[in-house]
Automatic annotation (TrEMBL):
Residues 1-52 are annotated as: Disordered. Its cofactor is pyridoxal 5'-phosphate. PANTHER family: CYSTATHIONINE BETA-LYASE, TRANS-SULFURATION ENZYME FAMILY MEMBER. It holds the Pfam family Cys_Met_Meta_PP. PROSITE patterns: CYS_MET_METAB_PP. This is cysteine-S-conjugate beta-lyase. It comes from the Bacteria. The gene is metC-2. Residues 17-32, 41-51 have a biased composition (Polar residues). Its EC number is 4.4.1.13.
Length: 433
């Protein structure tokens, strides 16, 4: 049988014949060792990928990110390594991968991909956005105090107030559009600042650079949920943020077919801490879902641009109506955070929230709408219309929700890739009395 190897140079049983761990380029059938040696490494470090891709535009990096071609076969897609464990060819030279909870080639490709896009020192993929957020918040210890965006995602609010609170991790929620409120919340045991900008669902804008500069003066760890903007529009690490988080289920995945979370660390030291937590907690993303994430992220730029055009048109149309109580979108001229948004981001995003005035009217609209999904989540190719009081912020007590501006008539519209005029016509009929 032909194996593509020179058996005279690699006799059976010799140690040389066993030195094919996953940290080295494998020798596939039909390819000589010399050919394999010339193949680029699929498993570059984030630093190597960033160096090799320096100078390329973001849209190009979405397609050519260092692992887009399988070095063993030339396949145009990262292979799905559907394996739970990996053979040690040489017990004295352990392979890069030994057990899939600790790492796998498919997940590594995704993790290096998001690290490259965010400009970090290391990226990590989790089983959900909340798994990524939970792991990052586990960097804090009992007795620590956190300052957090007041209208944060409901799942993050629930984690902080019902789970981490039992571990004696304290939280103060503040309006992060006001730097004085953040300063006033500082305590001797404050250890971190958690930002969400634009916030979910009222789309308030936090000045990331200003908050981070203040936090650094007090040696505080800074975290940002970048789900709504993605690295296509906003890269907080460039403004000094320590950890960037994503519910990758949303815009990064983009197709409503995968549940995933991503975290990116600014420094190698923080990356090592995140890796330890990921491995210790075991909330990792599987290889098939990692592959789906990579597939979805390749079209991120095209999707974000198209959806944002629709979102801006929708926000303007809603703002012109006399029967809408409030419209929240940072691209509107009257949005109080527009100037800051334009300073720290290159776009406004694809999510528009609006208040129709009452719970009764909101629910009537949801039952009449025909094109968008009426569902939890956002950031997909199909538009998704959500009702935060019953969906994303159901875990937040009503009185707390109302204090944060999340009224009973509030709806959140994630604009997809449909023709925006069709979406507006559908919304118009659903709003009719």
């Amino acid at each position: 049988m032909t194996t593509g190897r020179d058996d005279k140079n690699h006799p059976a049983g010799s140690e040389a014949s066993l030195e094919t761990g996953t940290e080295k380029t494998a020798q596939p059938q039909g390819r000589t060792p010399e050919q394999a040696d010339k193949a680029p490494s699929q498993l570059q470090t984030p630093e190597q990928s960033a160096e090799s891709l320096a100078g390329r535009h973001f849209d190009t990096k979405l397609i050519h990110f260092g692992a887009e071609i399988d070095p063993a076969t030339g396949a145009s897609s990262v292979p799905i390594y559907q394996a739970s464990t990996f053979h040690h060819f040489n017990i004295y030279d352990p392979p890069q991968y030994d057990y899939s909870r600790s790492g796998s080639p498919t997940r590594q490709a995704l993790e290096d991909y998001i690290s490259l896009l965010e400009g970090g020192a290391g990226g990590y993929a989790f089983a959900s956005g909340m798994a990524a957020i939970s792991a990052a918040l586990m960097m804090f210890s009992a007795g620590d105090h956190l300052i957090v965006t007041e209208d944060v995602y409901g799942g993050t609010y629930r984690l902080l107030t019902t789970i981490l609170s039992r571990m004696q991790i304290e939280t103060t929620f503040v309006d992060m559009t006001d730097l004085e409120q953040i300063r006033a919340a500082l305590r001797p045991n404050t250890r971190g600042v958690y930002m969400e900008t634009p916030s979910n669902p009222t789309l308030k804008i936090t000045d990331v650079g200003a908050v981070t500069a203040w936090a650094q003066e007090h040696n505080l760890l800074t975290l940002v949920d970048n789900t709504f903007m993605t690295p296509y529009y906003q890269r907080p690490i460039e403004q000094g943020v320590d950890i960037v988080l994503h519910s990758a289920t949303k815009f990064l995945g983009g197709h409503s077919d995968v549940l995933a979370g991503l975290a990116v660390a600014r420094t190698p030291e923080l990356a090592a801490e995140l890796k330890k937590l990921q491995n210790g907690l075991g909330t990792v993303l599987g290889p098939q879902d990692s592959w789906l994430m990579i597939r979805g992220m390749k079209t991120l730029g095209a999707r974000m641009e198209r959806s944002e055009i629709g979102a801006r048109r929708l926000a303007e149309w809603l703002a012109e109506r006399g029967d809408i109580a409030s419209v929240y979108y940072p691209g509107l001229p009257g949005h109080p955070g527009r100037e800051i948004q334009e300073k720290q981001s290159t776009g406004y995003g694809a999510v528009v929230s609006f208040d129709v005035g009452s719970e009764e009217r909101a629910k009537r609209l949801l039952n009449r709408i025909k094109l968008p999904l009426v569902a939890v989540s956002l950031g997909a190719v199909e538009s998704i219309l959500s009702y935060p009081p019953m969906m994303s912020h159901a875990a937040m007590p009503r009185e707390v929700r109302l204090e944060r501006g999340i009224g009973d008539g509030l709806l959140r519209f994630s604009v997809g890739l449909e023709n925006i005029e069709d979406l507006i016509a559908d919304l118009e009929q659903a709003l009719a009395d």
